[in-house]
Amino acid sequence: MDLALLYDVLDVPEENGPGHLLFEARKRHYTLPYLVLSVLARDGVPMSTAARGELDRARRRADYYRAALARVAAEEPLQVLKGPLLARSYPEDVLRPQGDLDLVTADEETLWRVVRLLLAERPEHVGVSVLGAPTRHVVVTLSRPAEDPLLDPHLRFEVATAALVGDFEAVPIRTAMPDDPLTANLLALAEERFQRPFHPRDALDIHQLGRFDRPSITELVATVAEYHLAPELTELLEFAGRLVPLGVLAPLAEALETTAAAERERRATAPAAPSPPTGATAALDDGRPLYGMQLRRHDDHAHWPLARVHRFGADALLLTPVGDYLLVTGEIVERDRYEAALRELDRITEEPA
Which among 26, 117, 259, 280 has most CB atoms closer than 10 A? Predict the structure, then answer.
């Protein structure tokens, strides 16, 4: 990992200098400047007070996530996705960009215990989503302002009972990740394709992973097939291969060709998904994602091991150990619906236990 590689990956002529390199990094991904600044500092490039301050804050951000993870992992069993696992593949003096911290628990009871531990980080926002049927999965997002809230992205934790949620159509929810870190990292990076196009940070991650020992190609292909991610991982490897050396991962894309074609065929011939339901209760029955619109944040139910769903009409409330939410399928909620949810919450709260 050196400046020459970064100039190549970000398509900046080296003669344009580090200022242009940093400018391009900001355009590509909000965390990439952290990596560029750390390499500039390591290589002794003169830095302004502002640049040095940004890098110092980024290092403290990484330290904060490490400390929070160590504290929670000491209390509860969990899996970590991406960030800290990928950071281990980078040189010690290079800061692998990390926007948030993704954690996976084996069940919902553990999830709420982890969330309660993370409440000590004083989050300003706690969001809750549910998906899946008949098994319900829960995703909780906690966020708070960064050290410099005007310049840096929020600190964010995501805790889920499912490691990979798929595309909500032909690619199913997969609850846990393989034990092998390299395999788990490849799968997590490939899964990102369901949310966004790949970008240079993904290529740099693949480059770093390619520097370490890997399972056999046969084992990797079998696991990727099991997780239904051969097309996405093939695309990622081809994208990264145009930008960086792939190291020990170089043979994998070709080895995945047959598996990727079979997975595309499986998806194409899978029964067509019905139109997404618009009502919350129908979406619950269908397993579609539902997002919690916070009605009240409290700890009245902190002792509850599980969240509870309360249906009323076509709508549903999610009553959780951290607050109460109206389950919705989209970002816009009519005022009448919101007020009806508050009235229903008041009604069931006033009922005798």
Answer: 280
- Listing DSSP states for 8-43 in one string gives HHTT--GGG-HHHHHHHHHHH-TTHHHHHHHHHHHT
Written as one string, the DSSP assignment of 219-246 is HHHHHHHHTT-HHHHHHHHHHHHTTS--
* C-alpha to C-alpha distance for 234 and 7, rounded to whole angstroms: 25
Please tell me the distance from the alpha carbon of residue 73 to that of residue 200, in angstroms, as a whole number.
30
Report d(CA 186, CA 259) in Å as an integer: 16
Strands in the chain per DSSP E: 79-81, 101-104, 125-131, 137-144, 155-160, 290-297, 308-312, 315-320, 323-328
Cα Rg of the chain (Å, integer)? 22
Looking at residue 70, the DSSP 8-state letter turns out to be: H
**Per-residue model confidence as pLDDT tens digits over 140-160:** 999 999 999 999 999 999 999
Q: How far apart are CA 49 and CA 41, in angstroms?
A: 12
- In whole angstroms, give the CA distance from residue 128 to residue 138: 7
Quote the CA–CA distance of 85 and 81 in Å, as a whole number: 7
Question: CA of 343: how far to CAs of 45, 229, 298, 323, 337, in Å?
Answer: 61, 44, 17, 16, 10
Q: Tell me the pairing of strands 125-131 and 101-104.
A: unpaired
**Residue with token string 């940070």:** 201
Q: What are the respective helix, strand and coil percentages of the chain, to the nearest 5?
A: 45, 15, 40
Sign of CA pseudo-dihedral 54, 193, 174, 230 = negative
Task: Tell me the three state secondary structure of residue 78.
Answer: coil
Q: Each residue of 292-328: pLDDT tens digit? A: 999 998 888 888 999 999 999 889 999 999 999 999 9
The whole model's pTM is what? 0.90
Q: DSSP assignment, residue 326?
A: E
Residue 309 CB neighbour total at 10 angstroms: 16
Q: Which two tokens stand for residue 118?
A: 């993370």
Is residue 104 within 8 Å of residue 158, measured between CB atoms? no
Give the alpha-carbon dihedral of 51, 52, 54, 55, to 10 degrees: 120
